[in-house]
UniProtKB/TrEMBL annotation:
Protein's name according to its UniProt entry: glycerate dehydrogenase
Localization terms from the record: Peroxisome
Domain D-isomer specific 2-hydroxyacid dehydrogenase NAD-binding: 130-322
EC code(s) of this entry: 1.1.1.29
Signal peptide start-end: none
Swiss-Prot/TrEMBL keywords: Glycolate pathway, NAD, Oxidoreductase, Peroxisome, Photorespiration
Pathway, per record: Photosynthesis; photorespiration; 3-phospho-D-glycerate from glycine: step 3/4
Family, as annotated: Belongs to the D-isomer specific 2-hydroxyacid dehydrogenase family.
Chemical reaction(s) catalysed: (R)-glycerate + NAD(+) = 3-hydroxypyruvate + NADH + H(+)
Alphabetical list of CDD domains matching this protein: GDH (cd05301)
First-listed, main subcellular location of the protein, grouped into a coarse class: other
GO CC terms of this entry: cytosol; peroxisome
Database matches in PROSITE patterns: D_2_HYDROXYACID_DH_1
Organism: Parasponia andersonii
């Protein structure tokens, strides 16, 4: 069994043992645990993705809760090990929890936390950055400059797409998809078409109000449309950004057939999860459609890219950094720690995981609750009255 060797310990005499499988940004999360009598053990092993065996070794014989990462496989084996060690809580340091088998957690009575809300704007900003970079061919142009190829202004040099007046398509208009839509509509005066299983009334009201504002100022108003099928978005949008959860319904949502429906010069952005796109089909599509561009933060077989993707000039690729702002990453660590702490202390679960701001205020103690437990109903956990 591969044993993690390198561990940093805070408050060695704490009553509750909480393990974090990775060092996380900031110190507030550590202080909050230590103040509540936790011994905090942080795995500092220099190995990016810990195996199930590594994590079993970390859990050991007695462990009250674990804070883990989206790269780890939290299934039957780990929940069984955690439960045998007396553990009652696990939190992903992520809003997405497709790496977690929630049924297995339910079976072992382990609460599963995630970190919604705190990464909404940061992730949407990266999706917007990729949209702009793809539209204006910024990465290609940067490489051209650094290669010393620029020898003077030319009318046809790196001509890209104007966003103003074009249509932005959002698939999955939840927290992040809606934030991205607002940025693109307000920032670049794009019209919106979106597809989601649920209506996003707030988003629709925002676009309507902004359209009225523009009209009152003598400008062309922006418009919105809720598509009844995803195909409508694919066919009509000039920029399409993917923001759904990853589950059975969204696996390979973008594939050979759906790619063929998109405009030849469309831009496709993915800051959700890699397997939402069939990446082999995408590589083929990019090869045959040089004006089609993509901005990818996530990959089907992370950390790897499918063969050929890295060679394509019409693809911009970044290493899953959409939530990587200091405020967000520190906030994710705080929410993950408070999820675990809340369960250990027997606190109720916060009633609205879309409203986690009170937990992020550095100048006040956090509410006595777990900010977001995804299986709270299945476990019959009490809900906070706050
Ligand atoms: N690249 C990155 O670093 C990050 C990636 N993410 C990913 O983004 C996802 C979304 O996060 P949030 O917006 O906070 O979640 P959310 O739950 O607010 O939004 C997800 C939306 O997807 C919709 N949806 C579900 N199935 C669908 C389907 N078949 N077709 C269309 N829409 C569907 C839901 O109705 C919901 O509105 C996370 O689950 C995570 O996987 C989140 C943060 C950072
Ligand atoms: O929170 C998530 O789901 C992430 O992907 C982290 O960046």
């Amino acid at each position: 069994m591969a044993k993690p060797v390198s561990i940093e310990v805070w408050n060695p005499n704490g009553k509750y043992r909480v393990v974090s499988t990775k060092p996380m940004p900031g110190t507030r999360w550590i202080n909050l645990l230590v103040e509540q009598d936790c011994r905090v053990e942080i795995c500092t092993q220099k190995k990016t993705i810990l195996s199930v065996e590594d994590i079993i070794a970390l859990i050991g014989d007695k462990c009250d809760g674990v804070i883990g990462q989206l790269t780890e496989d939290w299934g039957e084996t780990l929940f069984s090990a955690l439960s045998k060690a007396g553990g009652k809580a696990f939190s992903n340091m992520a809003v997405g929890y497709n790496n977690v088998d929630v049924d297995a957690a339910n079976k072992h009575g382990v609460a599963v936390g995630n970190t919604p809300g705190v990464l909404t704007e940061t992730t949407a900003e990266l999706a917007a950055s990729l949209s702009l970079a793809a539209a204006r061919r910024i990465v290609e142009a940067d490489e051209f400059m650094r290669a010393g190829l620029y020898d003077g202004w030319l009318p046809n040099l790196f001509v890209g797409n104007l966003l103003k007046g074009q249509t932005v398509g959002v698939i999955g208009a939840g927290r992040i998809g809606s934030a991205y839509a607002r940025m693109m509509v307000e920032g670049f005066k794009m019209n919106l078409i979106y597809y989601d299983l649920y209506q996003s009334t707030r988003l629709e009201k925002f676009v309507t109000a902004y359209g009225e504002f523009l009209k009152a100022n003598g400008e062309k108003p922006v418009t919105w449309k809720r598509a009844s099928t995803m195909d409508e978005v694919l066919q009509q949008a000039d920029v399409i950004s993917l923001h759904p959860v990853l589950d059975k319904t969204t696996y390979h949502l973008v594939n050979k057939e759906t790619l063929a429906q998109m405009k030849k010069e469309a831009i496709l952005i993915n800051c959700s999860r890699g397997p939402v796109i069939d990446e082999v089909a995408l590589v083929e599509h990019l090869k045959h459609n040089p004006m089609f561009r993509v901005g990818l933060d996530v990959f089907e077989d992370e950390p790897y890219m499918k063969p050929g993707l890295a060679d394509l000039k019409n693809a911009i690729v970044v290493p899953h950094i959409a939530s990587a702002s200091k405020w967000t990453r520190e906030g994710m660590a705080t929410l993950a720690a408070l999820n675990v702490l809340g369960k250990i202390k027997g606190y109720p679960v916060w009633s609205d995981p879309n409203r986690v701001e009170p937990f992020l205020n550095e100048n006040a103690p956090p509410p006595a609750a777990s900010p977001s437990i995804v299986n709270s109903k299945a476990l019959g956990l009490p809900v906070s009255k706050l």
